[in-house]
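Session log. Operator J.P. requested a structure for one protein chain; no other inputs attached. Running the standard single-chain path with token output.
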Amino acid sequence: MKIEFINLREIKMRLRSPFETSFGVTQDRRIVLVEVSADGVTGWGEITTDETPSYNPETTQTAWHIISDFIAPSLIGNNLAAASDFPERTEGIRGHHMAKAGVENALWDIEAQQRGVPLWKLLGGTLEQIACGVSLGIRENPQSLVKKVEEELKSGYQRIKLKIKPGKDLASVAAVRKQFPDIRLSVDANSAYRLEDAPHLKELDEFNLLMIEQPLYWDDIHSHAKLQSQIKTAICLDECIHNARHAATAIELGACRIINIKLGRVGGHSEARRVQDVCRQQSVPAWCGGMLESGIGRVHNIAMSTLPGFTLPGDVSASHRYWDEDIIDPEVTVSPNGTIAAPKSPGLGYTVRRSAVNKLTVRQESWKVDAVSVPA
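Structure written below.
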């Protein structure tokens, strides 16, 4: 595929309601979309950075810089045999996985369209329906959280994840577990605790949780191994895992018993496939995490979640949970039994609503080969 056109644009979308984690509260999302054309076929990717360097060192602004100053100029006009060749082309850029993923995933969309197959099949997916869970932000009190959990269960979601932080943990989890003794329940700390908090975290063992996600330092696998040996609840690693090597190390050290795979965090579909391969080989459950994506990022997550290593419900939920109006058609919907069907059309299987994207765009930058027509 010859790369003829790259368009980078930032859109601004407002969440239907504020979303609170241990990092803070998010209401408005600055989302960078990547549109790439090759051989007359257009593909889309999404950069899943936060606005601030709170989840990891990347931000909306750093991703814009890396793509506009390094990736796009080196890619435009060049040929790739396949989307999976992209990581090798950019291995001279250390880190910046989310920026790279936005571009690589657009290339996978193009290749799937060229081959006339849905993206999930090109990736090697086997699941025609993916199981869905939901992530709930920190709320003002346990009572309001219980009410929200009840609403999500009525919508069919198969796993409930509660965001926690010191002072907003045990009482909330206890209230939800008391009201719903049999549901699949997990918690996510987003690195809010320290190893010396082990006795406190051990109190979560009584609630029969599926997992506690990333309780300690965002970049420390070793401390999680120490914690896992002290608690019964399975640790799931998120921020620590940037590639298949990290996954293999964490499993070997006993730092976790479950792994969350996020497309942006690991650098795109190519590395995500390798991480889930490691998990499968070691019989470690994996699942797809979310980053408050627009519909474009969400449908890439759907495609990834069809791979056989994804054995637990992920954070892939319906568009309307987050947005009054999404930028894809149709919007992502979840069935009454908590599943999403893998699309049948080539590529992403959803149509990007260019008019909606244009309306939300606050800045853009483009690169193109001379004489190539730009998509309207």
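Operator note: The chain has 13 helices and 15 strands.
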